[in-house]
Amino acid sequence: MKFVDSVKIHVHSGNGGGGCTAFRREKYIPHGGPNGGDGGKGGDVFMFGDSGKNTLLDLSFQQHQHAEHGLSGGGSDKHGRNGIDLHIRVPLGTVVKDIETGKVFLEVVEEKDYLLFAGGRGGRGNARFKTSTNRSPEYHQPGEPGHECWVRLELKLMADVGLVGFPNAGKSTLISSVSQAHPKIADYPFTTLVPQLGVVKLNNLDPFVIADIPGIIAGAHDGRGLGDQFLRHIERTASLLLLLDVSGFSENPPQEEYQILIEELELFSPKLLEKSRAVAFTKLDSVSDFEPLDKLQQHLEASGETVF
């Protein structure tokens, strides 16, 4: 299934049904009192967190999501039927934003319903307006309109550890080695084009989830390479693991790669550097001289990094 992590949809909660103006018209009661019923409430719009979904693909083909309108009231004090609520199923980690202002309406992080927009209230029928001084009111209320707007849905994957590194740094090899994930692995940059999740199970420890995002390069925070469209997927992770290719065949020396990764994370969101993190050297089987590597490890550890 194609991975889609950002879509825009038009959402409309149901309008409330209008109240009714009606009077009793029974035999021998030619001028009966008011008996217009109330309108039904418009349907609410909910976002439901579905742990079985991992893409917003289906919503990219269903851009108009409307709850049902409430029905109008009727004579004989008949209450209009309430509109049916709309439940939009989205993956856990979905953020819902106003497409014009960027305001965050809600974040879906649990498998439950989240109210996005309430439906409009139904209008009151004329029976509600009968008073001692006005025994035959001809007025009824219209229903309240529902709320409608275009919203942006953005999926931020929920994982415990985020793998960060340059293209072809060995992230996919690592996640496939420690979990049941099977990302594409090849000896060329940007093999990973979409984020991958893997569940790691170690002996009697609780399992945890790691996320492999496409490779980061200089300028990624501005959209270069696969850019910031995937950096947001590590915003929810508890920890980061920075992978440095020390084989000597990478375009940049490992010390330079480390500096670029740190700078890109900070430029995208300074909060990313507040997460716990560690550094792992990859492709050690290609290293013949370990002295420069030992010096790099000492330098990183002196700056506070944990190095594997």
How would you describe this structure to a colleague?
With 308 residues, the protein is of the alpha/beta class. The relative contact order is 0.14. The two termini are 35 Å apart. The strands form three sheets. A five-stranded mixed beta sheet has the order 3-1-8-5-6. Strands 10-11-9-12-13 form a five-stranded mixed beta sheet, sandwiched between helices. The chain has a three-stranded mixed beta sheet with strand order 4-2-7, with no helix packed on it. The protein has helices at 57-60, 171-178, 228-231, 254-268, 291-302; strands at residues 6-12, 45-50, 64-66, 86-91, 94-98, 104-108, 113-117, 148-155, 161-165, 196-200, 208-212, 239-245, 276-282. The longest helix is centred in the last third of the chain and has 15 residues, at 254-268.
